[in-house]
Q: What sequence folds into this?
């Protein structure tokens, strides 16, 4: 049987991995901070929310409302975690990227450097 | 320092648009970010970035869920029902769309007709001043005298127009229409908008000229036109200003304004009426008050000059002698000119009768379309009875069912409206031809039109959907679910509605027939003169003294038989001149007066009853006149030859001949008394007697002949363009309004009939469906196909005859009234009124029997095998 193919946007892929890294502690601002600190890229908070929402609709992450904190003016966080389907998607992405990377002739990479 | 808080409006905005589901997490994250740098601007920006489709509140966030779900369900069921019954829905929607399209176009027309001249600033205070009660022409001094005498008159102006002027720009020479000649106050009265130039100085000097924007663009494309010299009617004129073009809905569609001439002011002449007068009255002054003042003004200025002519001692005596005349001036509101006083208009003339008839026809068509809908919807309601039964069993109130069917009918109307807009757009060019207006595609979507579309949508939706909804919602769920047939409304009502449709159709057909018959009658009347192959050359006075040579040259052209000249053209109206009979106590008459030349007898084919027409080279004929039979009759002269007529205070003329009556004005009116005088030698009227050159031609190649005549004209009048037309064309033109009226009736009665028969077709189908088994049983018991057809036809025949009686009754009454307006008219014969009934009856039979035939010949076993 042909393995299932996962279609993820570039930002979706990034956010999905960060959610996995943060391990049940992921919510909007935290994900945004993490993207900035890990790969030095500024993303607007609304874009992060949209991506998380999209991932949830696709079934790669699930969420529940977490605890409130004073700095959030008493508002609760929505905490995300990766679902089984999400883990498969990460695995798939990793595999395909790796396999593609392996096939690049060493000469052409050297040429780029 | 003030504690910094996030901007309140941003939070409120977020709460306003954001779905509740997302609100808390978003607010939390935004606040958390705000705590970091406390930048209000960042907070606001981030909030706005959340304004995305996915977070926006949807319909289900506002409405109660059940209501919304039900409406969704109603729409879904409605669409499914329509799709399941495609031909029924198609006929229904098409009929409604045609009705709505005619209604839309006509409403647009009616609104347009009623909008005339409302666009002028303070249009409610602007009046046209009529001489007497509604005379068009007023004295030159009226405008300025009104302003000087009465402070209530804010400003007044006099206009002469609209004429055609001869323009010369560079080396191009042409006629330009839309010429108005006025004083500078015209800009104040009408509040015209200036593109360039100054309203205060624009018409200061006699050579000043004001162009409209479009004319300036046409002549000089993009140049600045101020200061350019144009030769108008031979005078050098200088452009001083450019004004905005008047919109389409004006009675005064000028293209340029020149400074009006002052030729009689010096004489203080109040009896020569040569101008239109307009006045703007101060706010709050009723026109009746002004009319009273104008009566005094008339008495003060016009009175004394009138008695000089009449020979009365005082104005009061004159008034007592002619008590049925009105001595004064009358204000008529500007905005009423188009429909109430179209004779004041300088452009398109409105017709109140047309507007009323159009509106009624639109209403009729819409009614027919609605009746169709009601009929078909109630007739087919049986099909929906199970659905209604289930809905009721599941807890629907009657109210809900009514709502459902109203929503359905509004949906159908909506589809029909969209289709109707498409149909109107396609029909627009034809409609323009019909109405003589120039509507554009964008006019269909004007504000008033959109408003009326919305109104129609709701009214028709509720009107047509109301009754079926009432009937259907009454169904008993028990019967419905047991599969019993339910009475789908009263049959008598349905029959009544069909009869009503027939009545309207038959009325329209009868009216069309009679209108056409009348127009054809008028066109085929023996006029007493011969108009065929008669070429009219306008601007004959440009020839001046060269007329005689021109005439001889023209008669030398092979296709031209004979040439004459005339002061007037038949059917273009002529003026009344006063004559008196010197031997009979100076008895006065006012016949139409024209100037003729000897050859006119042959050109127009005038027949003489007594005496002779003017003769060539007979000097004494300049003191002779020729009269027509009507005038002889009015004068009561058995033998008019050699009797004398005199112009008051002028020359005496001897009658040399009596012409057989021929129609000189229009068949809409009786033949009027007419007097012809001999043109050439008379100096009293200048070149007036040679306004038109009439040439009898005998040619099959009209263009070639026209070319030859034009060449001759250019030889003699090189600097004035040739302008000619054929007399029978201009004769036909006077029946244009009747012809158009007839076309309107034909078009809309055709539409009405199509819609009515679409309905009849659908109704027959339905009746057959219901009586399917009955027909089969009858057949089994021995009924023949013709007898079955007869049975089906009988019912509709009865309805046609009932409807026809009503329709013909109304048509007879109305058409009699309409024909009263014509002096030469047809009699309303019985066949004109019975024929429409027969026509509609025949059509009904064709539709019904064609539809019934299949059911009648089909094998009864097919219908009876089930159950």
A:
């Amino acid at each position: 049987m042909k393995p299932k193919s996962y279609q993820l946007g570039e930002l979706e892929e990034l956010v999905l991995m960060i959610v996995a890294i943060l391990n049940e502690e992921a919510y909007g601002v935290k994900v945004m901070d993490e993207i900035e600190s890990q790969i030095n890229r500024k993303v607007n908070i609304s874009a992060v929310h949209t991506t998380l929402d999209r991932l949830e609709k696709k079934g790669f992450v699930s969420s529940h409302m977490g605890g409130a904190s004073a700095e959030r003016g008493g508002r609760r966080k929505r905490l995300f975690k990766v679902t089984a389907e999400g883990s498969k998607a990460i695995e798939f992405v990793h595999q395909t990227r790796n396999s593609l990377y392996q096939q690049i002739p060493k000469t052409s990479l050297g040429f780029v450097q | 320092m003030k504690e910094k808080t996030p901007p309140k409006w941003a939070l409120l905005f977020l709460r306003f648009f954001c779905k509740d589901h997302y609100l808390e997490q978003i607010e939390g994250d935004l606040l958390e970010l705000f705590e970091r740098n406390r930048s209000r601007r960042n907070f606001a920006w981030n909030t706005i970035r959340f304004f995305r489709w996915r977070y926006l509140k949807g319909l289900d966030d506002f409405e109660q869920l059940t209501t919304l779900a039900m409406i969704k369900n109603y729409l879904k069921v409605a669409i499914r029902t329509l799709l399941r019954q495609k031909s029924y829905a198609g006929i229904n929607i098409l009929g409604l769309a045609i009705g709505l399209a005619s209604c839309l176009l006509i409403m647009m027309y009616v609104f347009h007709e009623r909008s005339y001249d409302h666009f002028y600033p303070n249009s409610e205070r602007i009046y046209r001043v009529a001489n007497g009660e509604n005379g068009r022409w007023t004295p030159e001094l009226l405008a300025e005298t009104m302003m000087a005498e009465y402070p209530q008159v804010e400003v007044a102006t006099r206009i002469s127009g609209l004429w055609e002027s001869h323009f010369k720009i560079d080396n191009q020479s042409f006629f330009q229409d839309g010429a108005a000649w006025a004083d500078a106050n015209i800009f104040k009265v009408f509040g015209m908008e200036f593109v360039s130039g100054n309203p205060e100085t624009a018409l200061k000097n006699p050579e000043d000229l004001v162009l409209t924007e479009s004319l300036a663009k046409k002549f000089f494309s993009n140049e600045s036109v101020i200061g350019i010299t144009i030769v108008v009617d031979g005078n050098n004129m200088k452009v001083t200003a450019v004004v905005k073009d008047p919109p389409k809905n004006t009675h005064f569609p000028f293209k340029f304004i020149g400074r009006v001439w002052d030729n009689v002011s010096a004489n203080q002449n109040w009896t020569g009426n040569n101008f239109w007068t307009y006045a703007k009255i101060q706010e709050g002054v009723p026109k009746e008050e002004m009319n009273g003042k104008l009566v005094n003004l008339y008495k003060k200025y016009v009175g004394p000059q009138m008695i000089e002519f009449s020979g009365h001692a005082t104005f009061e005596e004159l008034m007592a002698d002619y008590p049925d005349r009105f001595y004064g001036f009358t204000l008529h509101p500007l905005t009423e000119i188009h429909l109430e006083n179209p004779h004041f208009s300088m452009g398109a003339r409105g017709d109140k009768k047309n507007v009323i008839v159009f509106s009624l026809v639109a209403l009729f068509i819409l009614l027919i379309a609605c009746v169709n809908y009601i009929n078909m919807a109630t007739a087919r309601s049986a099909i929906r009875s199970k659905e209604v039964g289930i809905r009721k069993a599941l807890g629907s109130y009657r109210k809900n069912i009514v709502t459902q069917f109203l929503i359905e009918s509004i949906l159908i109307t909506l589809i029909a409206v969209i289709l109707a807009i498409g149909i109107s757009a396609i029909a627009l060019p034809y409609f323009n031809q019909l109405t003589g207006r120039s509507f554009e595609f964008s006019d269909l979507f004007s504000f008033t039109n959109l408003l009326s579309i919305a109104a129609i949508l709701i009214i028709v939706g509720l009107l047509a959907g109301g009754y079926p909804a009432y009937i259907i919602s009454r169904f008993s769920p028990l019967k419905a679910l047991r599969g019993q047939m339910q009475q789908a409304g009263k049959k008598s009502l349905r029959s009544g509605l069909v009869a009503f449709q027939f009545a309207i159709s038959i009325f329209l057909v009868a009216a069309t027939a009679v209108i056409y018959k009348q127009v054809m009658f008028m066109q085929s009347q023996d006029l007493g003169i011969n108009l065929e192959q008669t070429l009219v050359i306008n601007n004959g006075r440009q020839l001046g003294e060269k007329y005689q040579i021109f005439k001889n040259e023209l008669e030398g052209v092979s296709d031209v038989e004979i040439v004459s000249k005339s002061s007037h053209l038949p059917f273009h109206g002529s003026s009344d001149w006063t004559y008196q009979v010197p031997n009979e106590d100076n008895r006065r008459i006012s016949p139409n007066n024209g100037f003729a030349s000897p050859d006119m007898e042959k050109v127009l084919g005038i027949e003489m009853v007594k005496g002779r027409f003017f003769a060539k080279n007979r000097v004494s004929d300049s003191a002779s006149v020729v009269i027509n039979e009507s005038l002889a009759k009015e004068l009561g002269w058995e033998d008019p030859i050699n009797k004398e007529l005199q112009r008051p205070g002028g020359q005496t003329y001897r009658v040399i001949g009596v012409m057989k009556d021929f129609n000189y004005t229009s068949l809409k009116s009786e033949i009027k008394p007419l007097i012809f005088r001999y043109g050439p030698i008379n100096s009293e009227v200048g070149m007036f007697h040679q306004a038109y050159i009439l040439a009898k031609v005998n040619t099959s190649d009209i263009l070639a002949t026209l070319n030859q005549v034009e060449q001759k004209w250019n030889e003699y009048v090189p600097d004035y363009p040739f302008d000619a037309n054929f007399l029978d064309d201009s004769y036909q033109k006077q029946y244009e309004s009747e012809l158009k009226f007839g076309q309107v009736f034909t078009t809309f009665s055709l539409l009405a009939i199509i819609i009515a028969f679409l309905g009849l077709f659908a109704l027959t189908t339905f009746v057959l469906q219901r009586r399917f088994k009955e027909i089969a049983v009858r057949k089994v018991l021995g009924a023949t196909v013709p007898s079955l057809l007869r049975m089906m036809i009988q019912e509709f025949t009865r309805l046609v005859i009932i409807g026809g009686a009503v329709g013909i009754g109304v048509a007879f009454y109305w058409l009699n009234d309409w024909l009263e307006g014509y002096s030469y008219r047809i009699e309303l014969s019985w066949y004109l009124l019975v024929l429409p009934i027969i026509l509609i009856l025949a059509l009904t039979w064709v539709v019904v029997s064609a539809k019934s035939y299949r059911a009648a010949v089909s094998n009864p076993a097919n219908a009876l095998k089930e159950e």
In short: The longest strand of chain A covers residues 61-68. Residues 18 and 31 of chain A are 7 Å apart (CA to CA).
